[in-house]
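User: structure tokens for this one?
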Amino acid sequence: MNKIFDLTQKEFARQRDTLNLIGSENYPSPKVLELLGSVWQNRYSEGYPGKRYYAGQVYTDELETFVQQKALEVFDKTDEYGVNVQLLSGSPANAMVYMAALQPGDTIMSIKLSNGGHLSHLHDTSAYKKFFNHVTYDVKESTPNLFEIDAEDFKAQLSAHKPQLTIIGFSAYPRAYQFAELCRAAHKAGSLVLADIAHINGLVAAGLHDTPFQAGSDGADYVSMTTHKTMRGPRAAMVFAKKDLMDNFNKTVFPGTSGGPHMHAIAAIGQALLEILGEEEYPDGVDFRTYSQNIIDNAQALEQGLADGGLEVISPTQTHLCLVKVPDEVDSLVAQHKLEELGIILNRNVIFNDPKSAWRPSGLRLGTAALTSRGLNTEQARQLGGLIASSVLGQKGAATAVSELTTQLNWYYQS
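Assistant:
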């Protein structure tokens, strides 16, 4: 048998037969997957609608324009933004903002990586530190184990460092947050704002989280997002920008840094947007807002099961993500491997002010978007939290329960 197809079948079975709690993964609809393998993959479409460099673009122009319109319909209620749908993934999308907005030597401010930030927002080993300075803002522990953005530190760092770009966005931050106050403070200090909503964009689209798409100084200048997490689309990305910044951003993407866009991914983004708008349905027929609320409800139920099972919750969730601390004597890498052997897939993660290394940190990160797509309910989520806690704490007997739970969930792909 063809080795690649053999591995694909094995990965298919692994995904079907395990419980995926990776916070940055999801299961797109079969139509999204169909478009990713469609004839759109064959096209080279350098340029933008109405100005391409190859012939044969009549339908690619129509497709890209349609997807742009749907993206703005989903996210922008202010009519102040444009959108580029040609970005390949989240980290390059953020890099394009840096290239468009900044000059070498400019300063970028973002939250500390160890306190919930993302690798693409600059960090100690980031290649972008060759070109830009980096300063951070922090979180504060408002009550025991409740960590939230420290608005005073945010403003103090703005005043002290005068960054040219401020990033509001996170990778391991379970709390909801408001954009307007932070955007206003950054703008008052003379900084542009990039809101990276890769993790929460589905919740934003559903109206279940505050939005950075706001008028005037209350809104972000740039908004980046991946399209595969809570948005439940393909592995791709979009960047929105205020209209006066959009032309320069587009030129930075093409011809500034990139060649032909991946039209198959753009088509798949469009399918996910249609499902958000209710013009298409996910196979279970659940509307997108209900699905998104189920994600949040399941995250809270999962967290309750983890706590009832004896694990320490860090910053009780208001989104799709949970963070828990493992006991000091537990090696999180070993715990992750043991859970994988049981059929539970998640990732070890640093927690706020973590004294341990990023390779063997103190915590675990869990997300409920993927299993909610498979029909997980709150009772099952709470049960799953208990199974995870019992495994981490060294108890036996969870394998049968994990297998039974897996068989109860939906799977919408052909075998």
